[in-house]
């Protein structure tokens, strides 16, 4: 497992260096206390918002959370549509992060995001994991970047600049900024400043008592993620990746090599297609789901070809749904916050909280 320091060494510098933009809020890089592999990137925006990126790397997977909010004094608060809430307080020497409600997948575990952070550098640097997440998001936005390699090369930088220009996102050095990352993650919506004197929606500094419900952010807090499509909106098409990203190959190899043994997987002509799609109705991070659909007749039968949906961790892919189909697509509707799947044009698979399952007719009354 690569260490956090190793990731940080493979960085591309960008951004407003050391800009103080509200009270004690200092732009730059903050690192978690106690040597925890978490860091906080902070940059101002020209319209008075504060953009941030929280990145934690652990055995449970990479957590990336990014957003924008207007500061109130030395504090910014951010609430996603999924209910995850953050409050980041600055004191001129560092910052403290407090969390409330359920955090996105891979973000709610040890080491905890909540805690103290020390001001480390006036510059903002993006490591390969963060750049890779940006590349995946740009691919999802229609840019054909090809392999997600975590390197901000000429093609990736050109896509970043085009995205910034189309969305009116200024960059002082024509490079990647935290505001751009937050815009990709949240659709550009920001949390309005909390009125003076109003309570700030944050988590308590100590854990709630057993059985006590966690604090909930106010209902009128603007979301930092885009509004979900209406059920009548046409679903996006599955975007099959060609070639399959190098980042996914080791994890796909570990999962599927035993299934084709003694044959060997040829990654230039794999027996399946791979897509990365955001299936959450209200996404809270930049990590999409991985969809695998076999297209080799040797693995198919009269019921169709195997398909799987996999959740991506730091070193492995975890299956959350599987089946067989002749045709696999996305439905325009959602169930429990996840996009419904459309199998063979008519069968609907709905999210159950643990995975996707076929919808069956259930009588309202049983005699």
Question: What can you tell me about this protein's structure?
Answer:
The structure is a single chain. With 367 residues, this protein is α+β, with helices and mostly antiparallel strands. The protein has 2 domains: 4-186, no CATH class; 249-358, no CATH class. Helix content is 14%, strand content 32%. The protein has 5 helices and 20 strands. The longest helix has 13 residues, at 128-140. The chain is elongated. The N and C termini lie far apart (58 Å). 38% of the residues are buried. Residues 1-20 and 188-232 have low confidence and may be disordered.
Instruction: Let me know the largest β-sheet.
Output: 8 strands, antiparallel
Q: How far apart are the termini?
A: 58 Å
For the CA atoms, what is the radius of gyration?
21 Å
Provide the structure class.
alpha+beta
Outline:
With 367 residues, the chain is an alpha+beta fold. The chain is built from 5 helices and 20 strands.
Topology record:
Elements lengths: L3 H6 L2 E3 L5 E3 L2 E2 L1 E5 L5 E7 L5 E9 L2 E9 L5 E5 L5 E6 L3 E7 L14 E7 L2 E3 L1 H13 L13 H13 L11 H9 L62 H12 L11 E6 L11 E6 L10 E8 L4 E9 L2 E8 L2 E6 L3 E5 L4 E3 L9
List keywords for this structure.
367 residues; alpha+beta; 2 domains; eight-stranded antiparallel sheet; four-stranded antiparallel sheet; 5 helices
